[in-house]
Every structure is written in C-alpha cells, then in structure tokens.
Design goal:
Helix content of chain A: over 70%
Radius of gyration of chain B: 53 Å
Largest sheet of chain B: 2 strands, antiparallel
Structural class of chain A: mainly alpha
Strand order of the largest sheet of chain B: 1-2
Helix content of chain B: 55-70%
Oligomer: heterodimer
C-alpha cells in the first residue's frame, strides 16, 4: 500500500533516503512539466526541479501538515519559477512574436510518429507560452495546467482577484492570436 | 468596441469553482452583450488547445544527492589522521607558551656554569656593594690604561723631564677622579629617576583612590 505524503515526509525527516526518494518521484513530474512550459528549455526545467526539491528538503521541517503537501510544494515551485523566469528572461517580448514562425507538424500520420507529433505539440505550446509576458505566462500555467482558482492565484502573485482575471483574459487573447497565426 | 465585463466572464468560464450566482449573472449579461458572446466563442477553445500538452517524464537524476551532501556537510570533519590534527594545535600551543613567558617575565640565562631559568621581575637598581665593585674595577682598568699610556709616552719621549712627567701624571689622576665623580653622579641620577617614577605611580594611585572615594 502506498504511503501518504505525510508518512513519507515523517520518514524523510527521520533520515530515510528511500522515503525522500519516493516523495520526490511522486511530485517531480508535475514540477518538471511546469518548468518546461514556463522556461521552454529542458535544462532550465531540470534546474527548476533540483532547486525546488532542494528548497523542499531544507524547509521540510516547517511543513506542519495543515494543508496538502502538494499545495505547500506549489508555493515553493511558484517562487522558484518566478526567480528563474526573471533570471532567464526566456523568449522574446510579446510585441515581436508575429515575426517568428514555428514549423507546423508535417502531417497527421498515425502510428510510430505519434511521439514525434506529441513532441512537436509540446514545443508549439512551449513557444506560445514563452512568448507571453512572464506575468501572463504564470497566470495561464496556474489556471489552465495547475487548475487553481483565481482566489488561490491572486495571493500567490500578490495581486487582486480582478487583476488576475483581467490578466488571464489578456493572455488568452494573445494565445488565440498566436494559434491563429500558426494555422 | 469592448465591454468591462468580458475579462470576468471569460475567467469565470474557465473556473469550475465559480459560484452559481456569478454564473447566473453572466448568463443574463451574455444574453444581451454581443461583445462578450463573441469573445467567449473566440477564446473558449484556447485552454483546451494548451491542455494538449503531453506530460513528459523527468530525466533520471540523483534525487538523494542533495540529502547526502547536506548530511555530509553537517557531520564533523574526519579525524582519522592524527598527525595533522596535532599540527593544527601547534600554533595555539606556541602562542600560549609565549603568552605565559611574557606574563611571568621568564628569563633564560646561559653562562659558563650552564643555563638557568628565572621568573619574575629582577631588582632594577644596583646594590651598594655591586656599585663599589664596579667602581673599583673601573678605576683599576683606568689605572692600567694610564700606566700603559705613560709607558708608551716614556718610550716615545725619553727626553721628557721628571717634572713634566709628574705634572702629567697629576693631570691624568685628576681626570680619573673627575670621571669617577661623573659616573657616580650618573648612577645617582639613575636612582633618582627610578625613585621619581615610583613616586609618580604612588601619586597617581593616591589620585585614583581619592577620585573613587565617595
């Protein structure tokens, strides 16, 4: 039977390496994919994963179990991602995204090339995201991929709920324009 | 043309936790606002497009490495090598020995009878016997020196009369006596200076005591 996050945390705090390993494996995929979408670079996404779990390990003793571990983890993920985005400043500004073309998938062949197409899809989405301003990129990530409510997003970004909604709307409009420009 | 309600309607449309009351309000608004209807139709598919993202597995990495390095840093350094451990205390030990030697005013004397170690402050002044011995030795040395000069002078100036030799000897004796007097005065001055120093310290102590008195 799988151990809960809290059980793994207790064991990890007691020095159990297997427990820590299991806890990381359980949550790393979500963090990695978030990093890929926000940073649009596998190396940076891996840096984010390592930064996040190092931060988690150092602060694990502070986790009291009042909220879900994934919620607590996501606060760390969010802060680290914001730091990394600021440092990397990945992608060109929103004004010039029209100038760059992204290759379309060559065809719709099923079968062995599906993985190629999936990869292409991810690249395309990653490029769309990277062309958004960082603030809009984060809102889309939190809302669409992490399924947070605007009441949860607003305090994370330290903005009013209505600002979060307006920012999200603007981001969707920008993304729609990018999608249409690709088709 | 735009509508101030559009951002909220689009955002709430993507929020499954939106309240029933807000949804009803939006429905009423959408019934009359063409702008919001058009925006909703245009943008409703965008989140779905993004959700075509295919989750990717994390490349293998050393998940426990950070713990191991943290644990390693927290432990004490390995002390299996005894010699370097001793060596690292040597400067401290040498400093302590020097400090003790300075504090106790240790003296190492090496003479013909061997070496000796002494501690504490030695008497700064000379005793009267030491002074007499010193003066006598000095006078003898000067006498011998004078005798040498005379012999040399006699050899050089053999024609010199006995009177002039006597006057010369008298002059030299006077000079010697004057030297001894000067030396005596110098020693007295030295002793007086020591006394003045002690007296100054005593005056300072009295002043401090006076200042501290209520």
């Amino acid at each position: 039977m799988d151990q809960t996050d809290n059980q793994l945390i207790a064991a990890a705090l007691g020095g159990s390496l297997p427990a820590w390993d299991a806890l990381v494996r359980r949550h790393e995929r979500r963090v990695y994919n978030l990093g890929l979408r926000l940073l649009n670079n596998p190396d940076d996404a891996m840096d984010l994963v390592q930064d996040v779990f190092l931060g988690v390990y150092r602060n694990l003793y502070r986790f009291r179990g009042d909220s879900q571990f994934s919620t607590w983890l996501f606060r760390i993920v969010h802060n680290k991602a914001v730091d990394l985005i600021r440092r990397r400043q990945a992608g060109p500004e929103i004004e010039d995204w029209f100038e760059e073309g992204t290759p379309e998938p060559d065809n719709d062949l099923p079968g062995p090339l599906d993985s190629y197409l999936e990869n292409e899809m991810n690249q395309r989405i990653g490029q769309f995201m990277s062309r958004l301003p960082p603030a809009q990129r984060l809102i889309v990530e939190l809302k669409v991929f992490q399924a947070l409510t605007f009441e949860e997003i607003a305090p994370l970004q330290d903005i009013p709920v209505n600002t979060a909604k307006t920012r999200f709307y603007t981001a969707l409009k920008n993304l729609k324009a990018m999608i249409e420009a690709q088709t | 043309m735009s509508c101030p309600h559009t951002p909220e309607i689009i955002a709430d449309h993507c929020d499954p936790d939106v309240s029933a009351e807000a949804l009803q309000r939006h429905r009423v608004h959408l019934g009359t606002c063409k702008v919001c209807q058009q925006e909703l139709l245009t943008l409703r598919g965008v989140p779905g497009e993004l959700l075509r993202w295919q989750s990717i597995s994390v490349p293998d990495w050393d998940r426990s490495g950070m713990i191991k390095s943290t644990i390693k840093r927290k432990t004490l350094p390995n002390r299996s090598h005894h010699w370097p451990a001793i060596l690292q205390w040597l400067p401290l030990a040498a400093s302590l020995v020097l400090a003790v030697a300075v504090m106790t005013q240790t003296r190492l004397s090496i003479g013909p009878q061997g070496w000796s170690l002494s501690f504490g402050v030695q008497s700064a002044g000379l005793s009267a016997e030491q002074l007499d011995e010193y003066l006598t030795a000095h006078a003898n040395a000067r006498q011998a020196e004078t005798r040498e000069w005379v012999e040399v002078a006699l050899q050089t100036h053999g024609q010199t009369t006995a009177d002039s030799i006597y006057q010369w000897m008298t002059y030299i004796e006077q000079q010697r006596a004057l030297d001894v007097q000067r030396m005596d005065a110098g020693f007295e001055q030295l002793i007086n200076r020591d006394f003045q120093t002690v007296d100054s310290v005593r005056q300072l102590a009295s002043y401090v005591l006076y200042q501290e008195a209520p």
